[in-house]
Structures are given as structure tokens and as C-alpha cells.
Amino acid sequence: MQNVIIVIHLIIVVALVGVVLLQRSEGGGLGMGSGGGGAGGFMTGRGQANALTRTTAILAAAFFLTSIVLAVMANRGRVQRSIIDGAPTQSAPVTPTGPSAPNAGGVLDQLSQMQAPSGAPPPRPPPAPQQ
């Protein structure tokens, strides 16, 4: 159903762009060649302005309607969630470490302590190469 409304929405968009480009602006726009001499035709002068203005209003209303319908359909199956729900309930205890090594007590050491099974010492990193 959503795909059908998207296709209708795109057709309305293309039609709306076309109708807006056909309207006569101060500089003439794309509709500048339709007002020549001779007998008054169907789409000349005031009749053309009224028809294009009405068509633009109808297409704009349809555009807003399909936009609202698509937004409602996108949010229909969504579950309301809070960012607080995703917060961890228990934080890992932080053990203070002394400055025995340059990076002792860093984030990686804390992560390795959290991942290590209880009672097992954390794995030691390989020694840094001597320069």
C-alpha cells in the first residue's frame, strides 16, 4: 500500500512542477508564447491564469495529503521507546590503579577486565618493542 501511495505522490510532484513552470510569471516563464493576437481562445489571459492557479492549488493539497498519509504509515508500526530504556542497569565497578604503566587503568584495560571470566587474571598485553 505504501508503494502505491509513493508512486501517486511522485506523479503529483511531477505534475505540480509542470503546472508551476507553465504559469506566467513577471518575466514570462515557459508560458510566454501563448498570448498572441487573434480570437480569444480557451487558455488565454484570465482563463489560463484561473485554471493553472486552481490546478496548482489542487495538486498542492494532494501533495500535502499524500505526505501526511506517508508519514502516518511510516510511524504506524513503530514502538515508542525511551533512551533511558537502553541504559545499562548495573555498571561495572571501577578499580583504581596506580600509575605503574603509561596506560594503566585505561579504557581498554577496563574492557578486558569486564570480558575476562571471574577469577581469571586479565590477559597481559605484549611488551612494547625497545628502541
Structure description:
With 131 residues, the protein is mostly helical. The chain has helices spanning 2-22, 45-76, 107-115.
Short description:
By secondary structure, this protein is an all-alpha fold. Helices cover 47% and strands 0% of the residues.
Report the uncertain regions.
none
Rg on CA atoms, Å: 34 Å
Termini gap? 67 Å
Tell how many strands the DSSP assignment holds: 0
Number of helices: 3
Gross morphology is elongated
Share of helix, binned: 40-55%
Class of secondary structure makeup: mainly alpha
Order of helix and strand elements from N to C terminus? HHH
For the largest beta-sheet, the strand count, sense and barrel status come to:
none
Task: Report mean pLDDT, rounded to a whole number.
Answer: 76
Give the percentage of residues in beta strands: under 5%
Keywords summarizing the entry:
131 residues; mainly alpha; 47% helix
Helix/strand layout:
Elements: H1 2-22, H2 45-76, H3 107-115
Helix pairs in contact: 1-2
